[in-house]
Automatic annotation (TrEMBL):
InterPro entries for the chain: GPCR_Rhodpsn, GPCR_Rhodpsn_7TM, Olfact_rcpt
Name by which UniProt lists this protein: G-protein coupled receptors family 1 profile domain-containing protein
Organism: Ranitomeya imitator (mimic poison frog)
Keyword Glycoprotein attributed: no
Pfam family, one: 7tm_4
UniProt keyword Membrane present: yes
Keyword list, A-Z: G-protein coupled receptor, Membrane, Receptor, Transducer, Transmembrane, Transmembrane helix
Transmembrane segments: 23-50, 59-77, 135-160, 172-195, 207-227
Location within or outside the cell: Membrane
Length: 294
C-alpha cells in the first residue's frame, strides 16, 4: 500500500558533472581539449589507414575499427556533458527507456550520462536481477577480452626476451608499456564501476571512474598506438610530403614559408612594441614619482 501511494516518476534528470560554478569554465576547457584530441587523433588514424597502402594489414584495420568505436563512444557522451556544464537546463530521459524499472521519489540521476548503476540506485523496484545480469554480462565481456590481451602480451614478452639486442628489447618494452597503460586505465575503472556489490549511493568517485573510461581512454588510444610506431610515423611523413606536392611546386612552398615568417615577424614586432610602451609607462611613472617627492 505504501508503494502505491508514492509519486510515480516518469522523467529522470541528470545532475551533470558538477554544481561548482567556479570549476565549470576549467572543466569545460579541459574536456573540450580532450575531446578535440580524441576526434582529431582517431579520425586521423582512420584516414591514414584508408589512404596508405603500407598500412593495409589486419593489425592496422583493427586499430582503425578501434578508433571508430572511440569516436562513436566519445561523441555519444562528451557533447551531452558539455551541454550540461554550460546550460542551466539539464538533460533528461523518459523512464520508459530504463528497462522495466519503476521510479518513485527523487528523479535526479547523480551522473552526467545514462548508466546502469545510478539508475539502479533510484529505482524502487527489485533490482537484484538487473544487478546480477549487469555483473554477469560486463564480467563476461571484460574478463574474456582482458584474458586475451594478457595472453597476447605474454607471447609478445616471450618473443622480446629472445631478442639479442638490448636496445631492441628496451624499445619493445617501452612500446608495450604504453599500450598496457591504456588498457589498465580502462579495465580498472570498468571493474570499479560495474563489478562490485551494489550500493545505494552513487558517489563522485564513480563519476571520476566514468570520466576515465568514457572520456580519457578514447584520447589515450591513438597516442599510445601511433607515437611509438615507426610505420605510423613513416606514413605520416609520406602523407605530409604528398600534401606538400598538392600545395604546388617549390616556388609556392617558398611563398608559404615567406608568408609564415612575415606573420611571425609582425607578431614579434607587435609584442615588442607592447612591452616597450609598457616599460616606457613604468619609467615615466618612476620619474613623475621622484619629481613629486622632490
Amino acid at each position: 500500500m505504501e508503494n502505491n501511494t508514492r509519486r510515480q516518476v516518469t522523467i529522470l534528470v541528470f545532475s551533470g558533472l558538477t554544481d561548482n560554478k567556479e570549476l565549470i569554465p576549467f572543466l569545460f576547457v579541459l574536456f573540450l581539449c580532450i575531446y578535440v584530441v580524441t576526434i582529431v587523433g582517431n579520425i586521423g588514424i582512420i584516414a591514414l589507414v584508408y589512404n596508405t597502402s603500407r598500412l593495409h594489414s589486419p593489425m592496422y584495420y583493427f586499430l582503425s575499427f578501434l578508433s571508430f568505436v572511440d569516436v562513436f563512444y566519445s561523441s555519444v557522451i562528451t557533447p551531452k556533458m558539455f551541454s550540461d556544464l554550460i546550460s542551466e537546463k539539464k538533460s533528461s530521459m523518459q523512464t520508459i527507456c530504463a528497462f522495466s524499472l519503476q521510479f518513485c521519489g527523487s528523479n535526479l540521476i547523480d551522473h552526467f550520462y545514462c548508466d546502469i548503476p545510478p539508475l539502479l540506485t533510484l529505482s524502487c523496484s527489485d533490482t537484484f536481477h538487473c544487478t546480477m545480469v549487469t555483473i554477469f554480462m560486463v564480467g563476461l565481456c571484460t574478463i574474456t577480452s582482458l584474458l586475451s590481451i594478457l595472453l597476447s602480451y605474454l607471447l609478445i614478452f616471450a618473443s622480446v626476451l629472445r631478442m639479442r639486442s638490448s636496445e631492441s628489447r628496451k624499445k619493445a618494452f617501452s612500446t608495450c608499456s604504453s599500450h598496457l597503460m591504456c588498457a589498465s586505465v580502462f579495465y580498472v575503472t570498468v571493474f570499479f564501476t560495474y563489478l562490485r556489490p551494489p550500493s545505494s549511493v552513487f558517489t563522485s568517485q564513480d563519476k571520476v571512474a566514468a570520466i576515465f573510461y568514457a572520456v580519457v581512454t578514447p584520447m589515450l588510444n591513438p597516442l599510445a598506438y601511433t607515437l611509438r610506431n615507426q610505420e605510423w610515423i613513416l606514413s605520416i611523413i609520406v602523407l605530409k610530403n604528398g600534401f606538400q606536392i598538392f600545395l604546388g611546386n617549390s616556388s609556392n612552398l617558398l611563398l608559404w614559408e615567406i608568408c609564415y615568417k612575415e606573420i611571425l615577424c609582425l607578431y614579434s614586432t607587435i609584442v615588442n612594441e607592447y612591452y616597450c610602451q609598457k616599460n616606457l609607462r613604468i619609467v615615466t611613472w618612476i620619474v613623475d614619482s621622484k619629481e613629486v617627492k622632490a
